[in-house]
Task: inverse folding
């Protein structure tokens, strides 16, 4: 379970997140929808500890982790897939996966073989350097690397970035299946509401300065397609 | 002619090998910590002196090869904790000046504890004398040191290529933030890299001691040569450092053989030439800057 209580986060001197509170229940799949630059990524970085909030509480399963170093937060069962993927260029596919192995502290049984089973293309390219992969393969590797830690909570930042619509749909369905099969709590950040609909059941609508403009269920968006535009254009 | 060729090739490998160990150590420290360690030559000298002392108190050369790098490594840990950690968030200039000062402190300590006279590391019986290679002959101790260098380089490659720590180090030299977001204590990896680099300097010192004798400022020339290696190879590139080290080892040996006084001039001219053609070094991608 993730619970943010009134966090304030600065990026350098700019006050990106102002008094943000939100909640993701265990086993739930939730998205944060918003335009570029409203602070979606900073929200993720606040949770994982890469840009620690100056105020408020970041509760992971009830423990306040604000100010903890990222690796200790990961040990509580978190995994982070950044929008840029951040595949280590000088490491092979296999080494990228080994790096994260077992770090999430969960009791899952993710292994190289199991990741290759879900993403056969990674198995075929396991000796290749990280940057020799295509965008889609890099996204799969980033997700595979996150899974290697046996996480119970996954933070997924804009999986659609730089991918073709077909690939995005494929990645989205794989991740959704994975999370529901393995009981992984998912917090997703997106600009594209179709992907958010495909992956999450509940959605926070984020406006400028990370102000939440509302919270909707997938059903409400399906019934009223203009809802997102109306709310987020403000 | 054959004898001279054998001599030059083996001597280049020995000198180049020492440069490899020094250059890779400097690059590991830089790649992980963004610290240009100007005390690297002084740590090399310390390694040689600790090696000398281990042998002087009754140990043998191989024991010295094991113990001296460990002592230098522990010292490296202290340096990291006391001098480098407090400067971590500041510009690289701070650690540049700090390690420059440290170099003189270590020079002074060496003169204080060991004196200014030249020391000789006493080698075991079997390493004295020469071995014949066809019509050529070569000093046994140089051959043994060459094998030692090869062993150190092989161990280093195994560490970096096959162990979890090695993978973490390579990853942390590229995207440190993501290493910690994968659950690895990246500060621990950075500190390990600093200590490893210092241990390599110490190891190079013990290996080089019998070759060039042991004297207080023996690290000065070596520091400059290591920089030449790192600059030619490309800042932060381990493969580049290996190629550059072997190349400089060969050029310097060849130049010393034919025109001794001009040897270093030729090395610097080569560096200038390479930098004109490839400003970031042979394998430099400039990704660290």
Result:
């Amino acid at each position: 379970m993730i619970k943010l209580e009134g966090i304030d986060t600065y990026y350098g001197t700019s006050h990106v997140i102002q008094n943000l509170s939100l909640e993701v229940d265990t086993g739930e799949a939730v998205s944060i929808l918003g335009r570029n630059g409203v602070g979606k990524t900073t929200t993720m970085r606040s949770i994982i500890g890469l840009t620690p909030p100056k105020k408020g509480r970041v509760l992971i399963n009830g423990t306040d982790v604000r100010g903890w170093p990222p690796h200790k937060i990961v040990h509580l069962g978190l995994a982070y897939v950044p929008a840029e993927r951040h595949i280590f260029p000088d490491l092979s596919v296999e080494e990228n996966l080994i790096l994260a192995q077992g770090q999430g502290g969960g009791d899952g049984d993710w292994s190289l073989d199991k990741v290759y089973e879900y993403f056969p293309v990674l198995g075929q390219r396991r000796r290749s350097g990280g940057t020799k992969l295509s965008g889609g393969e890099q996204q799969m590797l980033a997700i595979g690397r996150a899974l290697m830690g046996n996480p119970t909570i996954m933070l997924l930042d804009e999986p659609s970035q730089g991918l073709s619509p077909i690939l995005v749909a494929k990645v989205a369905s794989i991740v959704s299946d994975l999370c529901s099969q393995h009981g992984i709590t998912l917090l997703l950040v997106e600009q594209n509401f179709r992907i958010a609909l495909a992956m999450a059941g509940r959605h926070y609508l984020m406006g400028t300065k990370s102000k939440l403009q509302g919270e909707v269920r997938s059903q409400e968006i399906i019934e009223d397609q203009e809802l997102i535009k109306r709310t987020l254009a403000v | 002619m054959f004898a001279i060729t054998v001599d030059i090739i083996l001597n280049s490998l020995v000198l180049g090998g020492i440069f490899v160990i020094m250059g890779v150590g400097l690059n590991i420290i830089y790649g992980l910590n963004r610290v240009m360690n100007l005390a690297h030559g002084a740590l090399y000298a310390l390694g040689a002196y600790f090696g000398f002392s281990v042998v002087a108190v009754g140990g043998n050369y191989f024991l010295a090869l094991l113990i001296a790098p460990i002592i230098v490594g522990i010292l490296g840990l202290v340096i990291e904790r006391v001098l480098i950690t407090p400067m971590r968030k500041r510009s690289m200039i701070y650690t540049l000046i700090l390690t420059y000062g440290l170099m003189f402190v270590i020079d002074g300590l060496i003169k204080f504890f060991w004196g200014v006279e030249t020391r000789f590391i006493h080698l075991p019986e079997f390493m004295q004398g020469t071995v014949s290679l066809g019509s050529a002959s070569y000093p046994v101790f140089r051959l043994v040191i060459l094998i030692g260098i090869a062993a150190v380089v092989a161990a280093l490659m195994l560490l970096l290529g096959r162990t979890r720590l090695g993978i973490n180090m390579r990853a942390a030299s590229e995207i440190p933030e993501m290493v910690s977001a994968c659950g690895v204590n990246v500060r621990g990896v950075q500190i390990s890299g600093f200590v490893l680099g210092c241990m390599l300097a110490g190891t190079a010192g013990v290996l080089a001691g019998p070759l060039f004798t042991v004297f207080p400022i023996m690290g000065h020339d070596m520091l400059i040569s290591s920089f030449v290696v790192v600059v030619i190879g490309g800042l932060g590139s381990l493969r580049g450092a290996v190629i550059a080290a072997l190349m400089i080892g060969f050029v310097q040996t060849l130049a010393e053989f034919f025109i001794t006084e001009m040897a270093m001039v030729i090395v610097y001219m080569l560096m200038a030439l390479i930098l004109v053609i490839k400003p970031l070094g042979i394998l430099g991608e400039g990704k660290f800057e």
